[in-house]
Amino acid sequence: MLEAVAKSGVAVARMVHDHDIYCMRSYKYDWLTRKICKRPASLYCIFRCGACFVRNRSSFWPFRWVSYRKKRKEIALNREFDRLIVASEYMRQELLRNGFDAARIEMHPPVPRAAEQRLTSSFSERNLIIYSGQIIRGKGVDVLLQALSKVSRPFECVILGDGNHRAYCEQLAKDLGLSHRVRFAGFVPQEELRGYFAEATLAVMSSVWPEPFGASGYGHTVAASVVWWRRWR
């Protein structure tokens, strides 16, 4: 399909919002050590990362084979596109790292619609901490729980969302003695999130994989986390 599009003779633009183009594992970090990969696609992916074998969730077999040769071809075909559109400087740098032409990369950060009413947190003595997102290994909810276990000040934490790592994280919360301070609320409809954030002292983005589209975490969330941690550690 990519070859047919690249050779079609018409101008082609592609939106790039994840690591699938250049990462054989798709998530750009070491599954065992959780160290973020800063290398371009290369033979290192095979002989050091072992990325030819990836998890298989679509059949009986636990692993499936990913061809390095086909990945190189995929990268080459994407380089032929007239434009690669990204939403963050990080994604632009990843494409450059993998040999894409800088003149063909355009960055268009998403501009959210202005809120009808600005919310100001109550910052109550409840000290409510909110995590909202998928509960999968790369999102680092387990790392968040380990950090919270070291906090001595009173707080409450609500984990909003679901995923295949939830059962592990719920057990971890019990093991860390956090059952009375951390609550897993599951999936919450979008319209209900406003109420949670209005009561929150802190919103947390705990990802351990390099978020390609996680621009919301680089401003107020990270800054607030640093201030909060210095104050409460």
Q: Which secondary structure elements does this structure contain, and how are they paired or packed?
A:
Blueprint (H helix, E strand, L loop, with lengths): L1 H5 L6 E3 L28 H4 L5 E3 L7 E3 L2 H12 L3 E4 L2 H9 L7 E3 L20 E5 L8 H8 L7 E5 L5 H10 L6 E5 L3 H10 E5 L15 H13 L1
Parallel strand pairs: 1-4, 4-5, 6-7, 6-9, 7-8
Antiparallel strand pairs: 2-3
Helix pairs in contact: 5-6
Question: How does this model look, in words?
Answer:
This protein has helices spanning 2-6, 44-47, 68-79, 89-97, 141-148, 166-175, 190-199, 220-232; strands at 13-15, 53-55, 63-65, 83-86, 105-107, 128-132, 156-160, 182-186, 200-204. It has two domains: 11-107, no CATH class; 128-232, Glycogen Phosphorylase B (Rossmann fold). It is an alpha/beta fold and 233 residues long. Mean pLDDT is 85; it is low at 218-233. A four-stranded parallel sheet has the order 8-7-6-9. Strands 1-4-5 form a three-stranded parallel sheet, covered by helices on one side. A two-stranded antiparallel sheet has the order 2-3. It is globular and about 60 Å long. It contains eight helices and nine strands.
